[in-house]
Amino acid sequence: MxxxxxxxxxxxxxxxxxxxxxxxxxxxxxxxxxxxTEFVNPIVLVKKPNNDIRICLDPQNLNKALxxxxxxxxxxxx
Length: 78
Description:
2 helices; alpha+beta; DNA/RNA_pol_sf
């Protein structure tokens, strides 16, 4: 695995991000996590065509940790 990377965002993006998160918390679209959790995923700030900010989840590490059910496919004999 590579080294962890810290990216810097412009201050304006951070301010916009805080406003968006506050709005989503106030409207109930997001819920504040108030207890320890095993999974914390990084967010990615994406600039929309209208210059708003979209907050996206980067689920790469989450996808690696998922435990998926495996199904055996039947053969022609079955």
